[in-house]
Amino acid sequence: MTATRLDFGILLVLACQEFVAELRAELAREFDDQGPSDGYVLRSLGARPMTTSELAERLHMSKQGAGQIVEDMERRGYVERRPDPSDRRARLLHLSERGRDALAAARRFHQRYERRLVREHGRAAVETVRALLGDMAGVEPDTDPRFRPMYL
């Protein structure tokens, strides 16, 4: 009799869901109103202020969709709009103090999570998984500028 194995893709999805569930539980202690897209916006704006159009492009979504997310995050105090000093017609999105605090809390969680994996599975195993995921994603996270906002 052969052992039944979960499909690799299902394991990836389950692992991601577990990571996100732990992250949200951790952040909910201080930021109990986080939305499902907030992390992507926080990381993007943490790299640099940008317009809603630039954010939409970075997140691969419509300008209208990004605008709705930004309006909601602005209402909840994570994002601020300020005039663009180089274009009086444009408004740049900035992280508010609360947004910067939420981003810092998420980054701390990411670091603790990885340290826990290293303790439980060893540095070599974690580095192997990191390399495998980078290969699967088809990117060079250390050099691809799209990933700068994702750096810890």
Unreliable parts: none
* Largest β sheet strand count, sense and barrel closure: 2 strands, antiparallel
Structural class: mainly alpha
Number of DSSP strands?
A: 2
How many H/I helical runs? 6
Q: What general form does the structure show?
A: elongated
Evaluate the radius of gyration: 18 Å
Q: Helicity level, as a percent range?
A: 55-70%
Strand order of the largest sheet: 1-2
Strand content is: 5-15%
What sequence of helices (H) and strands (E) makes up the elements? Answer: HHHHEEHH
Write a concise keyword list for the protein shown above.
single chain, about 150 residues, mainly alpha, two-stranded antiparallel sheet, 2 strands
Structure, described:
The protein has 152 residues and is mainly alpha-helical. Helix content is 60%, strand content 10%. It contains 6 helices and 2 strands. Strand 1 (79-84) and strand 2 form a beta hairpin. Helix 1 crosses helix 5 (97-121), helix 2 packs across helix 5 and helix 5 crosses helix 6. The N and C termini lie far apart (45 Å). The mean pLDDT is 90.
In short:
The chain is mainly alpha-helical. The chain contains six helices and two strands.
